[in-house]
Amino acid sequence: MAPLTYVSTRGAAPELGFSDVLLAGLAIDGGLYVPSEWPSLTVGSLERFASMSYAEIAVEVMWPFVEGSFDHDTFEAIVSDAYATFATEEVVPLVDLGDNFWLAELFHGPTLAFKDIALQLVGRLFDDELTRRGEKVTIVGATSGDTGSAAIEALRDRPTAEVFILHPAGRVSDVQRRQMTTVLAPNVHNIAVEGTFDDCQDMVKALFADKNFRESRNLSAVNSINWARVMAQMVYYVTSAVRLGGGAGRPVAFSVPTGNFGNVFAGYGAQRMGTPISQFIVASNRNDILTQFLTTGTMTIGEVQPTLSPSMDIQVSSNLERLLFEIHGRDGAAIAELMDRFRSEGTVSVDSDRLDLLSEHWAASRVDDAQTAATISGLYEQTGMLIDPHTAVGLAAARAARTDPSVPMVVLATAHPAKFPDGVEAATGVRPPLPEHLSDLFDRPEKFDVCPNDFETVRGAIEATLDHG
Predict the structure, then answer these.
(1) Residue 382 and residue 97: Cα distance in Å, rounded?
(2) How many angstroms separate the CA atoms of 252 and 111, rounded?
(3) CA dihedral in degrees (330, 331, 332, 335; nearest 10)?
(4) What would the pLDDT profile of 312-359 be if each residue is shown by its tens digit?
(5) Where are the domains of the chain?
(6) Backbone angles phi, psi at 121, to 5 degrees
(7) Strand pairing partners for 139?
């Protein structure tokens, strides 16, 4: 069987193998790469997974996506090394909340957020592939708080990459900012953009669209626009489902705090592979463009509202394009037209028959700051457990939108509560302490540049750093 190839959601970029998709990030037509077909996990595979470790399952789930680009033994070693960095042997432990609600704790990696699960792997894949090619890349990424620190931690001090992370100035938590800006590795560069996360994300896309800059600087991406990120996140949907009876074919549901849509799209990928997932709940905060879309079929870009869950303060969710591609019969030209219209007019609608394709398995719920705080305090009073505001959005949405109480509902706990101590303390009176390896975070010196929300200025700052590095 020939190795899997990847196609762009906009249909006008060449098909690539995994290694080229890994390094390219965004397709040259502005689209996102997806596999040309979805591999299948058999019921027999899911049954076998019940007795396997997280890393062993990860190799089996991801191998069809990387076969032909990596030697199997090399890939197995990279996966094993990536997940050895986590604080718990399970990597993603499940915690029983009662009433058939469960937390999947995705925050046991080095930077305390779910992004580590993908980026600890992706950083190693980058390094291996670039070392083999004798090449070096310029990584440019935008972050609403967590991707940046996870990417920096995965790529710091690696000779194969210069890393530039853009974050919205004043719109990430102090812990999130310091986890990025106190890493003084010579290949790490932080830029605070005077704007929103959407402005940072637009800036990254514009840098990739600048053909001369992209090619001369060998640009690459670690945002969830990079397929390798989504691929790695599919694994914890599989492991969580298997541990709750999915290996025997019993369905499991997931509630996902959602910003850029990569996390929940990874769940869709796991479902397409054969994981028995009966429901996805897309949990939004006040920035509820996704809830609007899933309930009305219309997306309209509004002003980003700051909330207690800043990593979800997004109005343009890039990875939704991957799902739109699927429900439009993988018609790249239709998606290109749809996304162009969305950008030019600020609003776009899909036909009701397209939306109906999602109605069986998808729901959405909007959770405001008051509900978020009440969920944090309520769970603490009931169980003594602290959760971060993003996880609280997921839990509140799960309670509001669950369709079948007999099906286990897994809420993705996307960040450690200590990443958002102010919101947690305001809700509970308890300030969650940082783990020991970050206990001196607020004593460490910071290093970052501040730039206006201006493309030429940001590009110039990156070029000046590269030319004088």
Answers:
(1) 10
(2) 28
(3) -100
(4) 989 889 899 999 999 999 999 999 999 999 999 999 999 999 999 999
(5) 94-110+227-428
(6) -75, -50
(7) 163, 220
Written as six digits, the tokens of 257 are: 């705090």
CA dihedral 79, 325, 270, 201 (to 10 degrees): 50
Q: Are 261 and 287 a contacting pair, CB within 8 Å?
A: no
Closest CA to 19 of 119, 115, 130: 130
CA terminus-to-terminus distance, the chain: 45
Positions annotated as catalytic residues are 115
State pLDDT tens for residues 22-78.
998 889 999 999 999 999 998 788 999 999 999 999 999 999 999 999 999 999 999
pLDDT, one tens digit per residue, over 418-469 is 999 999 999 999 999 999 999 999 999 999 999 999 999 999 999 999 998 6
- Cα(163)–Cα(156) distance, rounded to whole angstroms? 8
Beta strands 137-142 and 101-105: pairing type? unpaired
Looking only at the bridges linking them, the beta strands covering 362-366 and 409-413 are unpaired
User: Residues 339, 321: contact at Cβ < 8 Å?
Assistant: yes
As given in the structure block, the two tokens for residue 356 are: 């109906």
Domain 94-110+227-428: CATH architecture, name and number where available: 3-Layer(aba) Sandwich (3.40)
Distance of CA 329 to the CA centre of its chain: 24
Point out which residues pair with 252 in neighbouring strands.
Answer: 277
Laid out side by side, the sheet with 161-168 consists of: 219-220, 137-142, 161-168, 188-194, 449-452
